[in-house]
Amino acid sequence: MSTGTDVLVRARDVHKSFGDLEVLKGISMDVHRGEVIVILGPSGSGKSTFLRCINNLETMHAGSIAVDGTYIGYEVKGGDLFRARSKTAARQRGQVGMVFQQFNLFPHMTVMENLVEAPVVVHGVPRQEAEERARRLLGIVGLADRETSYPSQLSGGQQQRVAIARALAIEPKLLLFDEPTSALDPELVGEVLATMQDLAERGHTMIVVTHEISFAKAAADRVYFMDDGVVVESGPPDQVLENPQQERTREFLRRFL
Ligand code: ADP
Ligand code: MG
């Protein structure tokens, strides 16, 4: 399973500091194509920072991350790694779609305009093709009838499903979710998790930061528990969630009983 081409994301010993505060203290992770990874951990443990490093929104201080064999934030020259120029970084970021806690839709644009913006403007996809792709994606997230709506006319759950469709619109190799249901009213959480589960079953490679243990049990191939900038333990969900080996993991999971 773990031959080179199966590995979509290879993170090695990733370190990141903000000033004197070391937030990531050597994170390593391999994500295989088609895998769903759930990252659990208390607030402030570095989960968002790690996702942002994968998406090149933050620059790591040491270690490396490769997505589909291409180094993020770095490039290889003569066997050595150098920080990539910003254009290279921007191009690499196009391989990764990200969904945030706050849906971050463009409020002055319709649903359709939100979905075609990046493919047309950033990736040069012809508008008609981008619109066809957007309609297909709106069907997948269950919002085929809302393409002319503005975000303010949608519920939070619908807005987040549009944000998921927008992340998919660039046809990314990898989807990152950073607490996608944390800002939603409880009754709207289920529809977003169901959409994510559907994407998992369609074979998308996903890294999901969430506190939804039920989603981790149902959808994750592997669960990582992070605390204080390190991976405390990782493994299949039944192992990490039902039979955690580390006291820190047990203590965290007790909150959800
Ligand atoms: P999590 O997502 O697990 O809650 P974060 O990655 O958001 O954790 O944050 C980890 C730590 O890094 C926290 O202590 C947070 O305050 C700090 N941090 C995050 N982003 C910044 C930043 N841009 N500047 C300074 N400190 C930051
Ligand atoms: Mg976070």
Automatic annotation (TrEMBL):
Subcellular location, in the record's words?
A: Cell membrane
The way this protein sits in the membrane is described as: Peripheral membrane protein
Give a Pfam family name: ABC_tran
List the SUPFAM superfamilies hit by this protein, alphabetically: P-loop containing nucleoside triphosphate hydrolases
Keywords attached to this entry: ATP-binding, Cell membrane, Membrane, Nucleotide-binding, Transport
According to the UniProt entry, its GO molecular function terms are: ATP binding
Xref: PROSITE patterns: ABC_TRANSPORTER_1 (PS00211), ABC_TRANSPORTER_2 (PS50893)
**Is the keyword Nucleotide-binding in the record?**
yes
Q: Which residues form the ABC transporter domain?
A: 9-253
Q: Which InterPro entries match?
A: AAA+_ATPase, ABC_ATPase_HisP-typ, ABC_transporter-like_ATP-bd, ABC_transporter-like_CS, MetN_ABC_transporter-like, P-loop_NTPase
Report what the protein is called: ATP-binding protein
